[in-house]
Amino acid sequence: MAEPRTRWSALAAGIEAATPAERDRAVDALRALAILGVVLGHWLVTALTWYDGDLHGSSPLVRMPWLTPVSWVFQTLAVFFLVGGQVAATGYASARGRGVPYGTWVGLRLRRLFRPVGAVLTLWTVVAGGMLIGGAEGETVRTLVRLVLSPLWFLLVFAALTAATPLVARIGPLWPLAVVAGVDLWRFGLGGPEWIGWVNVAAGWLVPFTLGAAWSRGAFARRGPQLLLVGAGAVAAVALVLRGGYPAAMVGVPGAAVSNLNPPTLAAVAFGLAQCGLALLVRERLGRALRRPAAWAAVALVNLSAMTVFLWHQTAMMAVTALGLLVSTDLPGLHTAPVSAGWMAARLLWLPVFAAALGLCWAAFRVHERAAVRLRSPAGSTTRPAQRASGKEITHA
What we know:
- By secondary structure, the chain is mostly helical.
- The chain has helices spanning 2-18, 25-45, 60-63, 68-74, 77-97, 102-133, 138-149, 152-163, 165-168, 174-189, 199-216, 223-242, 266-289, 293-304, 306-324, 341-365, 385-390; strands at 47-51, 54-58.
- A hairpin with a 2-residue loop joins β1 (47-51) and β2.
């Protein structure tokens, strides 16, 4: 038992030694928390139920609305876009200062973002084709493929906003917020077409992204603006749910007339503002906590494989579900209908199994994400010896 602890301590010490003193560790921590929040949220509110010889997607939120607060805790995409805006604006400003062309800068960022996607699409093209050839029901295949592909919309939006950083970094969050409000007014208040809501896929996530860009310029150095974001966002979200008729769940619920997330509504954006304000409030405390090498190493390693974790977490859950069918088609919390508190209690017991499966996916596919990124000092020094010994290099990218 002592040997693994010794190895971990050596790895943590190497990562600590390789980290420049000026690095904002809280940025990495917020990104890691946002990714893990999405993963746990999906594992808790996504159910694959077996009946009539098929796997069908469902959600415990349909029959157990008292679980709605789960969606408030684990719907953390706004924080991810906040951090993305901060990192993109900071990185672009640094690249300009060093004379790096825009095309080079954006190409590097987008290559790292999309490199792991090819592995997911290739594997699932083969798996889906094999299932259909093997006689699997079309509904089962559609359900599984839909779960795999659904997170990719987020990457497309994130990539588009990243590519537009030179433009969007100049505007404040009030402009896209006004667009979201106008679209919702037209859609819900004036009987506008449903398709107009998809404008908010860009405008809704542009709000936290521009907040991140403003953060990079020092706009939230004081607690006053941070508290304003938390208070105004929370009050607006509550008012929109209680008085405006918006759903209380901040994720999509199968069968619901309106989804707060697909596309984003004003209620989801207001909730995201409160989340972003809270993230900004706790960032200094997070930074102090991450002065401990062990804590910082854990955060750094999550960030090294953030896209791998995000892209493969649904596959890990589905692999466990499929293998479970070899044992029984009625395993509680795995194949049974999510209609009671007992289902949720059983589901919690499956989370470590999902995590183990995700660990196997990580080991197999992390190579497709950039395995080593040079961590430079302001003077542009190369990788330090301790960093080479750890075998890991870290970046804000």
